[in-house]
Amino acid sequence: DVKVTQSSRYLVKRTGEKVFLECVQDMDHENMFWYRQDPGLGLRLIYFSYDVKMKEKGDIPEGYSVSREKKERFSLILESASTNQTSMYLCASSLRPDSSYEQYFGPGTRLTVT
Amino acid sequence: GQNIDQPTEMTATEGAIVQINCTYQTSGFNGLFWYQQHAGEAPTFLSYNVLDGLEEKGRFSSFLSRSKGYSYLLLKELQMKDSASYLCAVRDSNYQLIWGAGTKLIIKP
């Protein structure tokens, strides 16, 4: 079974802090994604990566950066956390970007910025 | 712009059948996915449609009409554990997933 793990289930940070969210997958998937999920909205893509050291902006990259130094690990960084970044953050991976390959999700990190 | 529409919430009775609709307008089409998400948990994959027609998987079926930009997820013999949100997502011409806001399904005894 594919397993996607995230470093924390719940996180509380203060405004202005630098925040690291880590994601690890164990199935040698090429693609990894970071989403945020807010009530009443669909999943919104923040960044994605198709390969090591490669990153692409999603729909809402402002205020975020990412790092993929190893194939299995994809980190999301909030350089200076703000209250509007309070959200559920979901990491996902998939084998390849094309056709029928579904995305597998981690359990999510609920981040609260106060 | 790109848009996925689903009802916000539906209620059904245990043992019954429910159909959750999804309509989409996207730049290109490379498949439609349905995911299930229980409260506080990660979405899990249910089904994939790329050609028109019905795909059946046990109690769950998913239908696609590309010409109408329409899909539905059909759940039969509803069980209490089916209470969850159901997310529709379309893969566009860039192979990115565009997500609907999800339909919260409430099952009553």
Structure overview:
The complex is a heterodimer of chains A (114) and B (109). By secondary structure, chain A is mainly beta. In chain A, 0% of the residues lie in helices and 50% in strands. Chain A is globular and about 40 Å long. The model of chain A has no long low-confidence stretch (mean pLDDT 93). Chain B is an all-beta fold. In chain B, strands 2, 4, 5, 9, 10 and 11 form a 6-stranded mixed β-sheet that branches. In chain B, strands 1-3-8-7-6 form a 5-stranded antiparallel β-sheet, with no helix packed on it. In chain B, strand 4 and strand 5 form a beta hairpin. Chain B has strands at residues 3-5, 9-13, 18-25, 32-37, 44-49, 53-57, 60-65, 70-75, 84-91, 97-99, 103-108.
State the end-to-end distance of chain B: 40 Å
Helix coverage percent of chain A = under 10%
Task: Compute the number of strand runs of chain B.
Answer: 11
Spell out the helices and strands of chain B N to C: EEEEEEEEEEE
Calculate the mean pLDDT score of chain B and round it: 95
Q: What do the pLDDT scores of chain A average to?
A: 93
The H-and-E topology of chain A, N to C, reads as: EEEEEEEEEEE
Number of helices of chain B: 0
Structural class of chain B: mainly beta
Give the strand content of chain B: over 45%
Looking at how many chains there are and whether they match, the oligomeric state comes to heterodimer
Helix content of chain B: under 10%
Low-confidence stretches of chain A: none
Taking all Cα atoms into account, the compactness measure Rg of chain B is 13 Å
Can I get a quick summary?
The complex is a heterodimer of chains A (114) and B (109). Chain A is mainly β.
Descriptive labels:
heterodimer, A: about 110 residues, mainly beta, seven-stranded mixed beta sheet, four-stranded antiparallel beta sheet, 11 strands, about 50% strand, B: mainly beta, five-stranded antiparallel beta sheet
